[in-house]
Specification:
Number of strands: 0
Distance between the termini: 39 Å
Shape: elongated
Oligomer: single chain
Largest sheet: none
């Protein structure tokens, strides 16, 4: 396997695990209705984080498949994935 495919696979696995963990956190919050008032202000940022992680996972998976099958469009997806990772870092970088 090519080194770039391995790196993209690591990114894909990491973003998938983040997506699953955030989604499970949201599910746990649903099962704690007695604490809904405490979780109310965290619901929006949690949903935003789930959307960002899911988007990164989809981009990484597309990039991974394109790299493995050596499609011509893979380089464009690699650039979009890199830009999305930089954008996610920008959103979550401590202010």
């Amino acid at each position: 396997m090519r080194p770039l495919a391995m790196l993209i696979g690591i990114v894909m696995g990491s973003t998938l695990s983040i997506s699953v963990a955030l989604t499970l956190t949201a599910i746990v919050m649903l099962f704690l209705p007695e604490h809904a008032d405490r979780f109310a202000e965290e619901r929006g940022p949690l949903l935003q984080a789930i959307a960002i992680a899911a988007g990164l996972t989809a981009l990484a998976a597309t990039s991974f498949v394109g790299e493995l099958r050596t499609r011509r469009w893979r380089f464009a997806v690699h650039v979009v994935l890199l830009a999305a990772l930089i954008g996610a870092g920008w959103v979550y970088w401590p202010k």
